[in-house]
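Table S5 (text form). Sequence records supplied for joint modeling of the two-component complex.
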Amino acid sequence: MSERISLGRAENRIAVAKTYKLYIGGAFPRSESGRSYPVNDAKGAFLANAAQGSRKDARDAVAAARKAFGGWSGATAYNRGQVLYRVAEVLEGRREQFIAEVGAAEGVAVKKAQSLVDAAIDRWVWYAGWTDKIATVLGASNPVAGPYFSFSVPEPTGVVAVLAPQQSSLLGLVSVVAPVIASGNTAVVVASQDRPLPAITLSEVLATSDLPGGVVNILTGRTAEIAPWLASHGDVNALDPTGAPEAVRADLERSAAGTVKRVLRARTSEDFTREPDLARLRAFLESKTVWHPVGV
Amino acid sequence: MWEYAPAPESRDIANLKPDYRMFVDGQFVEGGGEPLKTINPGTEEVLAEVSTAAPADVDKAVKAARRAYDRVWGRMPGSERAKYIFRIARLVQERSRELAVLESLDNGKPIKESRDVDVPTAAAHFFYHAGWADKLGHAGYGPDPKPLGVAGQVIPWNFPLLMAAWKIAPALACGNTVVLKPAETTPLSALVLAEIIQQADLPPGVVNILPGAGDVGAAVVSHPDVDKVAFTGSTDVGKVIQRQLAGTGKKLTLELGGKAANIVFDDAPLDQAVEGIVNGIFFNQGHVCCAGSRLLVQESVAEELLEKLRVRVSTLRVGDPLDKNTDIGAINSREQLTRIEELTASGEAEGAQRWTSSCPLPDKGFYFAPTVFSNVSQAMRIAREEIFGPVLSVLTFRTPDEAVAKANNTPYGLSAGIWTEKGSRILWAAQKMRAGVVWANTFNRFDPTAPFGGYQESGFGREGGRTGLEAYLDV
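The corresponding structure-token record, covering 771 residues in total, follows.
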């Protein structure tokens, strides 16, 4: 175990090491494949084994996300906002743990890790505040030329497959997951391949934050192995390829066309420490226009 | 009719203190004004003594708010302001039971309303506006809209905590600091909110709360260093404030009186409409500026509807505000009770037909049995003036155009109700209403995401929603 992770523990005590597992449908299973892979810190020292998720795990995760979609998208925006804010509250309580894990995963100094974790907590708060404002900012009443009342409302697109950024193990992860679920989508997330531990710890936060099981599902493993199954899956509605290896990105986008998935447009590089714009919220929204006649 | 055993909420939960002090610059301090005694309108017993602000205290509070604005709050990043306001929302939620009991004690409203409407909606208002604090650039007022400065706010006694939330939450979210005066008869929940603001560790001076009577309110709104004035209350006082502020350049929003029409068309689901009519006029003893106080019924269903309405109203239980079974609590003050009695007497004198529920009333306290006037004509005072009590005036109409004409025949324009099964008629009637809020097949719905406010003599400006932010931004 790395020094950073055992920070603050009594020196003469042997720490209990955690088994890092997947997060699917609110539960923490091992990979059905029985596989795991070693995760090292930035200097190459062994941290832990992570589950190496398989095609079957991905499909289970999609099924769990689909099952959760009705309830989550049907919850009031106020309720979703409070749940997301609760995530920030619980994350704040685990601040020290995340500072240690992000430090170990990303090889950054404590001060930098602190600022990354603080930004990740504040990012949840930012998106928590969006749930009940998306419709007023992105919706519209349409002044159609006729005796009709017409309005357009944003609605979540459904199950979103998210390939989390490979570098930013927590802030980047939060920055791609929170906007997906804020609007009522559910997510299947493939964590950073080499820095997956903060993602699994985040799933422990999600599991204890009133977030219904299945709204966020987190897989660890080889991104290039799992991603194609998600990109081609018939019950996935959209794809965020942010963490896709360059070599397979175009293939994933081609697979996504099979069921006309919404694919987040790739950005050359994304600085997750900056306040985000609405791009990630908008990307996974449908717009529904309703017409109704007006007259006595 | 069913007999109900008493089911009172314990008044101990309110954590009443013998005296309360004003909140200035982060501290509870004695005011220089004559202390007031706030009473429980349900029993006429004194609840607590509350210190009030003298003119010098108003100046002190405005100075504290200015300092807090200049040094801390006005320049703080929105994302940090947001976290303070989220804390307030959570603390209100955590202390919701205490606040609900306190509100019912001080105001007289039934505990089921303070518990299920006032307090949760107040918390929701803080929660919603907390989220705006770091998103103002997305609200449609330009990329980086600025706050105004110090907001002077005066609120009424009908929803003491909720009105404080409606005023304070958007002001803080937009980066302003606040000097707020709660109503003379209901100062307690605002002062507990001040305690919550202290617990949330807001910088001193960001929120200041000054109890007192109308003179304190007048001093707050006319203070030269106040940049924005928000007032909720009577149209008469609203007009005085608008005149007072003329030429000062201060930004002003007013939420004033109303005389809302609640229109029932002949194809309406009558049982559902009856529930909505009852909610529209008897919610909060009718102390609601948007109350559906003028019922307009299509002639062909008027008899049937009135019969159903009287049966339903007969079942309403009037009494102890703390009893969980109480539907209608106490009238907030003797003064208000007198006004209701005077206006209902005018209704009888002018020839309207009065029906009053024969429900028993408590011996002590201010109570008024629910009353329905039929055969009301538009010229009568009870059809024109805001009664602000559990009194409904029923008028009839024959055609939809007549309904619209009668509904709009008022200088007010706060809200309106429409009851019909026909969607196109709802939208047609809603378009024709000269009112800021129109409820269709429902009534008295409030949500922080939905702007609220009136046309013409019901005031200007909106509270809630994206629209409501405008009142607290320099735009």
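Note: Residues 55-74 of chain A form the longest helix (20 residues).
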